[in-house]
């Protein structure tokens, strides 16, 4: 003989209540399991830290301190999330920090390039000014040398009496051969006239007194008179 067991009254309702109460607990466990399945963003954190270092080395503290400050703040927040095991927010914050540090590094490099260009422009301006000054000094020195040379030439042209030498005295005589003209014969100077003392004093010969010069006819016609004259009138 077979027996049938019927469920107790109210037993099905109790079982439904137990299953419904376990659902929230299951949901909490699933959420916790999902959070635990996200790995720690170690690579993102390392990349963010390296980006900060590169931005500082590029001079972001001088050329772009604002973006560098944003990157540092995001990295600190990512570290806080890592310590609280909030790996998802930590990864997002690390990525934002990397982007800000990259922007700061780029702006720093541009600022450094502009500074180098400005320094070169200033150096070129100084060099140009030095060149202009050197040219002016050279021109002044040349002017002084020309003035000294002119003074020396003027001093050499002054005569013995302190007056400027005339052109006829300073100019050299022209060479006839160079001018193409025939050479002129040298001019003969006149004989000087005898002095009055020479004309007044008679010629003395042998202490015999004044001797006259006989005429040409007298010398030819009367030679004896010449001898008588030489004897001084004695026979």
UniProtKB/TrEMBL annotation:
Ranges of compositional bias, category Polar residues: 219-235
Pfam families xref list: DUF4398 (PF14346)
Residue stretches of biased makeup (Basic and acidic residues): 134-144
Stretches assigned to coiled coil: none
Top-rank lineage group of the source organism: Bacteria
Location of region: Disordered: 123-235
Residues covered by the DUF4398 domain: 43-118
PROSITE patterns noted in UniProt: PROKAR_LIPOPROTEIN (PS51257)
Bias type Low complexity, positions: 145-157, 164-179, 192-203
InterPro entries: DUF4398
Protein name (database record): DUF4398 domain-containing protein
Organism: Rhodanobacter glycinis
